[in-house]
Amino acid sequence: MTAKFVFSGYYPGLIGRVVELHGSFYAENWDFDVSFETQVAMELGEFMHEFKPSRDGVWAARLDGEFAGSVFIDGKEAMQDGARLRWFIVSPKVQGHGLGRLLLAKAVDFCRQRKYPKINLWTFKGLEAARVLYLDAGFVVTQEHNVDQWGGNLLEQRYDLKL
Fold first, then answer.
1. Which ranges carry the N-acetyltransferase domain (predicted)?
2. 96-127 confidence digits (pLDDT tens)
3. Centroid of chain to Cα 130
4. Distance between CA 86 and CA 73 in Å, rounded?
5. CA 132 → CA 28, 101, 120, distances in Å?
6. Which of 61, 112, 114, 163 makes the best surface tag, with the fewest CB within 10 Å?
7. Which pTM value belongs to this model?
């Protein structure tokens, strides 16, 4: 199957869809509790409230009109600590069809066009499909530490990409 994804920026309802997919995916696959979903909702809401198109980026993908995935770039600290890649997720319904790679490329290209010196992201060990995408794009792990959050113990990781 060759998926025909349609890409856009923000559209009404996107915030809710991103929060819902994060909440359901991580609860079902990682047993995360409600604190994770509420953190995503609060931080994404704050990001969109302060969103500046010259600095920040939003990419949403749909397939047959249905939300399929997203990635965001927070450029607030881009020239100091690097742009922050956030809320990168692909619906399990369309995983394996190249959407993650396409979304990640859009975010990296956005940062290159703005001449940001680097991109960073926080994730945790165990998300293998995402890890492969990050490494293929040139990201490297720069920090790791154990954290007790969202109902479990995780090895949190920071990845950086120098541009």
1. 5-163
2. 999 999 999 999 999 999 999 999 999 989 88
3. 10
4. 6
5. 22, 10, 16
6. 112
7. 0.93
